[in-house]
Write a structure and sequence with these properties.
The protein is built from seven helices and seven strands; from the N terminus they run αβαααββαβαβαββ. By secondary structure, it is of the alpha+beta class. The chain has one domain: 3-Layer(aba) Sandwich (Aminopeptidase), CATH 3.40.630. β4, α6 and β5 form a beta-alpha-beta unit. The radius of gyration is 15 Å and the shape is globular. The model has no long low-confidence stretch (mean pLDDT 92).
């Protein structure tokens, strides 16, 4: 990965929303559509929302939510109904030019540090199973995410694999 890109990971700000929405629109067949006002609400309630910028351009972002929110996503609701010890990865998007450069790992590692600091037990997400998002499937499998369920979403237009990864807590002295 380019060192300059990893060094540019920082908390998202409202000034980043146009870049985030641009990236999301390129990948909404996997993530889902996102409007400015919806992004602003998610940002305000996010447990984690970071971006990677190269110059003024947003090239990656990760948005994650904690439990107990009034969020209509059926995937979020699946995890929220099963307990409150999680951070839900709502969406992670990497610009095509920066795919396979390690940015997703850097963002996930940063989220994992936050989960450990907050003593959260699991990271959760969904991966498109039908139609399959093979790159996401490989990434999440490599990161230790295991399937805990499946469901049809989007009015039956796609099936998702609901996954979780245990957050190993560091020993405290």
């Amino acid at each position: 990965m380019t060192e300059s890109a990893a060094e540019k990971i920082r908390p998202a700000e409202p000034a980043d929303f146009d870049g985030i929405l641009r990236l999301n629109a390129e990948w909404e067949h996997f993530t889902s559509r996102l409007a400015y006002d919806s992004l602003a609400r998610l940002h305000e309630s996010a447990a984690y929302h970071s971006v990677c910028a190269v110059g003024p351009r947003i090239v990656a972002f990760l948005l994650a939510l904690g439990p107990g929110l009034d969020y209509e996503s059926p995937n979020y609701r699946f995890f929220d109904s099963a307990g409150d010890d999680f951070i839900y990865i709502d969406r992670v998007v990497i610009d095509r030019e920066y795919q396979r450069t390690g940015l997703a790992d850097v963002l996930y590692d940063d989220l994992l540090r936050l989960a450990r600091r907050r003593r959260v037990g699991r990271l959760v997400c969904e991966v498109d199973a039908e139609p399959a998002n093979m790159a996401s499937d490989r990434f999440h499998t490599r990161r230790g995410f295991v399937e805990v369920g499946t469901q049809w979403v989007g009015g039956g237009s796609k099936r998702v694999s609901l996954r979780e990864c245990a957050v190993e807590q560091e020993e405290t002295r």
